[in-house]
Amino acid sequence: MTRSKTALISGASIAGPAIAYWLATYGWEVTIVERAPGLRDGGQNIDVRGAGRTVARRMGIEDGIRDATTGELGTEFVRTDGRTVARFPAGISDTDGATAELEILRGDLARLLVDATPDTVEYVFGDSITAIDDRDDSVQVSFDQGDDRSVDLVVIADGMNSRTRKLVFGSAPTIRPLGLNTSYLTIPRTERDSDWARWYNAPGGRTMTLRPDTKGTIRATMSFLSAPGAHDGLTPDEQKTLLREKFADAGWEAQRILAGLDHEADLYFEHIGQVKAPAWTSGRVALLGDAAHCASPISGMGTSLALVGAYVLAGEIAAHVALRDAFRGYERIMRPYVDQAQQLPPGAPRIANPRTRAGIAVLNAAARIGASRAFSAIGGKLFSPPADEIDLPDYSRLAR
User: Fold this and answer.
1) Residue 269 phi, psi dihedral angles, 5° rounding
2) In the chain, what are the domain boundaries?
3) Which of 5, 120, 188, 306 could form a disulfide with 15 if both were Cys (CB 3.0 to 4.6 A apart)?
4) For the residues of 4-35, what is the DSSP string, one character each?
5) What is the pLDDT of residues 135-192, one digit of tens each?
6) Does domain 1-400 have CATH number 3.50.50.60?
C-alpha cells in the first residue's frame, strides 16, 4: 500500500484551513499548527468575490457564507454630525461596490473553513514552528512545545508578518509599507447604528468606520497616516494610549469608539503593507496567503487571494508527481492574479485619508458625484477591488 503523503501547515486563519481541505481531498495527511491557543473567532468584515466565491462554491461552503452574511446594506460617507454625504449600496455583482453581496466576519469564515475540513485533519493550537530543515526527501520541523516531525510538505500561511517565513526565506520577502496604521475593535451597538457601514474622515489623515455584524455589536476601525515603523513595538496599553491621543479631537463617534478601548481585549493594531516575495516556494516549503503576497486590506482582495491560492497550490500538487513541477504551476497561475490584486488605486491610501479640511471637502464632493444616479456605475467601480480575473483550473478529477 502506498504511504499517504504528509503536510504541515502553519496558520489556522483562512488560507491554512482552505488548503488543508483541498490537500485532504487529494488524499494527504494534514496537520495545522496555530500559535494562538484556539481558533480566532474575532476580526472584521471581509468579502468573498469573483474567483474566491467560485472556490467557496467548489468547497461547498458558499451557502454557509450567505447564511452568515453580515447583512451590510452598503457604505455611507458621513459628516461630523452624522448626516450622510454619499451612499454606495452593496454590489449587485461579484466585483462592484465597496460592500460585496457575500460579506462575512473573518472569524465566521474561519469557522466555516475549519468545519469543512475532514476529521482526518489534525489541529494543534498553542504551538509554533521554531526550525525547518528542508531535505531532499522530507522536511524536519521543530516546535516550541511539541515533538519534532518529519513531513513531505510545509505550507506557511501565518500572515503578513510571518515569523515562520524567515526560517526558510530569510529577508528575501519584503513588506512594502503603505503609510497607514489601522486598528480594529468591537464596540456595543446603539440605536444610532444601522445596517449601513459608515465612513468618516477627520483632518490629519484620520479615518473611522463603523460596520454592522451578526453578533449585535459594531465593528469599528480607526486609521491614520503614519511613517513606516513609527509605532512598531508598542505594547497593547501603549497602542491604546496612542489612539486616544490621535483621535481625542476627531469628532463624530470618536469618543464612543475610544471608550470601547477600555473593554476591548482583542484590539488589532497594524501598519498596513504589502508582501513582495521574489519566490513563494523553496524545496519542499511553500508560502500561501498573506505570508506570500499580502495585498493589504485596502485592496479588498485578501480573502479571494487566500482561497484561490489554496485551491491552486493544492490542485497543482495533486496534478504533479514532483513538488518542483507543482510549485512552478502555482507561481505561473497565481502571479498575474496577485500582481493585479496589488495594484492599488493611484494615491492610495492618502487619497482616502486627506490631511486637511479642504481635502476632506474634495473627497466628499467626489463621493457625492460618484453616488449620483448619473455616475453610479463609475462610483461603484471607484470603491471596488481590482478586477477578479483568473482562469481557474478544474482539479475535480484528482479528488479521492
Assistant:
1) -125, 120
2) 1-400
3) 306
4) PPEEEEE--SSHHHHHHHHHHHTT-EEEEEES
5) 989 999 999 999 999 999 999 999 999 999 999 999 999 999 999 999 999 999 999 9
6) yes
